[in-house]
Amino acid sequence: MKVRVEGTGGLQGWPVPGCACASCGRLDPGHRRPASVLVDDRVRLAPAAPGQAPEAVTATAPDTPIAPDAPAGPHAGAEGRLPEGYRELRTSDGREVTTPDGGRLLYAVGPPSGRGEPDSPPDAPFDVVLIDLPDRPERLGDLRRRGRVTPNTRIVAVHLCHRIPSEGELARRLGFWGAETVPDGTVVGTAGTPITGGPAHITGVGHTVDGPSPTPAGSAVAAGDQTCAGDPAAVSPAPDVTVTNGVRAAQRSGRPRRTLLLGGSRSGKSEEAELRLAAEPEVTYVATGPSGGDDPDWLARVRAHRERRPAHWRTVETTDLAAVLSGGRGTFLVDGIGTWLAAVFDECGAWPDDARPEDLRRLDRVEARCAALVDAWRGTRARAVAVSDETGLGVIPATAAGRLFRDALGRLNQALARESEEVALVVAGRVVPLPI
Questions:
Q1: Which residues are catalytic?
Q2: Which of 79, 176, 279, 289 is the most exposed place for a label (fewest CB within 10 A)?
Q3: Residue 37 burial (CB count, 10 A)
Q4: Which H helix or E strand runs over 269?
Q5: Mean pLDDT over all residues of the chain?
Q6: SS3 of 353, please?
Q7: Does residue 343 contact residue 370 with C-beta atoms inside 8 Å?
Q8: How far is CA 151 from CA 103, 205, 246, in A?
Q9: Which residues contact residue 298 at a Cβ distance below 8 angstroms, ignoring those fewer than 6 apart?
């Protein structure tokens, strides 16, 4: 199976012609052309414009009539629109194409166009997946969970447009999701295909005396940046070079085990944590906040968080974080440390009261719970991302309780950061790494 990604942009490419947004303004015209995929030089796939059914056409038979009102049901690909030996099935996962040599491709762009059952078992893996990851990266996690995407599946992000702030941000997200992007005109191979020769800016692989070596993650080369997009020659299709063993997929194995994300209120820290784990097959979301009782504002916040999370994630509501982190080897998202500490103050009865002297023994209980959490964070075998509030950037709290909580959370954040491979501060949706 030969898959040429003719265009990797959205319906109007990236930048969108005439668009004045910051994302489009960072790129030269024609940086990424509208999405289009050519399979075996015979079958072209492209996303449908709003209100139109997706089409599959034969590139080698331009005179073959394609009726505009051709059936668009699950088996439309078998209604004379595909060459002999090719099959297309439109399912809830996307457009599944099987080639005569048994190659399997999933084109997951736009809303599901059918509900047909696959010709092969529902969990049969794909060789190549071309997917709109900026839309819903959790689709990739669900495919992994059901075995349809395996380590041998090549995952390429397409339908790229100004939903993403920049190519650099795209590369950062793809590193989390175990996917990659390629320049327009690239021919992609499967993940198991041996690396072939070719320019490093196309293959994502530089060659040294010791053999091929991945291009550094996050660079323009690794991200598939077309650094000369303003040159008219850069708008033409890229050389016919097979891309193999993409850099982005390789980065997934080297991800940090413990990540602490700090930020103020409405900074985007929770969204960043969810984005990092969106393409994971199994995630346990550990909610540490109170139920909310009858507080409509708090209940609305909880509901927004639930609706934003992927449907296949598991949710656990508990304040026993030490037990959760010590007993599991999966992937955990803890949201968040601030609400956990507030609950611990409640459970220990440690909030100061003007009507009585401060009970230091109760504060000792809080400190013991914090120490147990840090020990569990240090010793966990799971992959964990924790969200915590950065409360030390505002005004000094007017109450004794506020000052006590601020100081305790600041000390706890420091202790967790010391035991984390990665720490970042989220400000206005921008992520600032905090190196050690």
A1: 305
A2: 79
A3: 25
A4: helix 269-277
A5: 79
A6: coil
A7: no
A8: 16, 19, 12
A9: 289, 290, 292
Q: How far apart are CA 171 and CA 245, in angstroms?
A: 16
pLDDT tens for 19-51 read 999 999 999 999 999 999 999 999 999 887 665
The two tokens of residue 89 are 């099935």
Say how many residues make up the chain.
Answer: 436
Under 8 Å between Cβ of 256 and 302: no
Asked if the model's pLDDT at residue 70 lies above 70, the reply is no
pLDDT of 365-400, one tens digit each? 999 999 999 999 999 999 999 999 998 887 888 888
Name the residue type at position 428. A
What is the DSSP code (8-state) at residue 235? G
pLDDT in the model for residue 300 = 73
**Alpha-carbon span 265 to 393, nearest angstrom:** 11
Output 220-223 pairs: Cβ under 8 A, ≥24 positions apart.
220/167, 220/168, 222/171, 222/247, 222/248, 223/167, 223/168, 223/170, 223/171, 223/174, 223/181
Residue-wise pLDDT tens digits, 159-187 = 999 999 999 999 999 999 999 999 999 99
Q: What's the mean pLDDT in 271-288?
A: 95
CB within 8 Å of 306: residues ≥ 6 apart: 315
Contacts of residue 22, defined as CB under 8 A and 6 or more positions apart, other chains included, come to: 165
40-63 burial: b if 16+ Cβ within 10 Å, else e: bebbbbbbeeeeebbbbbbeeeee
Q: pLDDT exceeding 70 applies to what percent of the chain?
A: 71
Question: What is the model's pLDDT at position 252?
Answer: 53
Instruction: Read off the pLDDT of each residue in 137-159 and give the average, rounded to a whole number.
Output: 95
- Compute CA distances 405 → 339, 359, 392, whole Å: 11, 15, 11
Count the helix, strand and coil residues of the chain and give each as a percent rounded to the nearest 5. 30, 20, 50
What gap in Å lies between CA 323 and CA 299, rounded to an integer? 26
